[in-house]
Structure formats: structure tokens, C-alpha cells
Amino acid sequence: MSLSLQPVQVATGHDEDGVLVFDESQRLIAVLTHLSEQNEVAPGQWFLEAGFGRLDGVHHPTFANLDAAQDWIRQRLTHGS
Fold first, then answer.
1. What pLDDT, on a 0 to 100 scale, did the predictor assign at position 15?
2. d(CA 67, CA 73)
3. Cα 59 vs. chain centroid, distance in angstroms?
4. Which of 9, 46, 56, 70 is the most exposed place for a label (fewest CB within 10 A)?
């Protein structure tokens, strides 16, 4: 499964560097934000700000890097878990 990323600024009021994640049909499936090194919960990690379709839910995980985030997204889209 091919994913594409587009850099974007996300108006969160803090930690605004992010990416839009698109599936192979160029549908927006997720918004990830990069947490700053000063973040108290998960410094330097990526956060699932919003997920759509199978990525929607109450659980918004953090990831060590964009590769880990993309692996999680692919797993959710492929297996639905």
C-alpha cells in the first residue's frame, strides 16, 4: 500500500509542524503532528492528530518517527485492527 505525505502547518497552538497523509487514491486519511522536544508527554515523537475512516477513533497514538507512523497506518488499513 502506497502512502504519500505532504508537509503542512497545523493550527494546534503549539507543535504545529505536521504532515497530511494520503492513500494511493489521494484521499486524506490522517493528519500527523511532530511534537517538540519540549513536549512533556512524548518529546520529539509524531502524534496522530486526526484519523479518518479506519484510522478514526478515541486512541491517538504517538510514533518514534514517520516510518513507524506509516507502518501503523498500513496495518490499520490492511487489517482493520
1. 77
2. 10
3. 12
4. 9
Q: What is the amino acid identity at position 5?
A: L
The pLDDT of 28-50, averaged and rounded, is 93
CA atoms of 24 and 4, how far apart (whole Å):
7
Give the domain extent around 50: 4-79
Q: Take residue 70 and report the three cell numbers written for it.
A: 506509516
Secondary structure (H, E, C), 29-54: EEEEEECCCCCCCCCCCEEEEEECHH
pTM: 0.91
Kindly report the number of other CB atoms within 10 A of residue 32's CB atom. 25
Cα–chain-centroid distance for residue 76?
A: 12
**Tally of domains within the chain:** 1
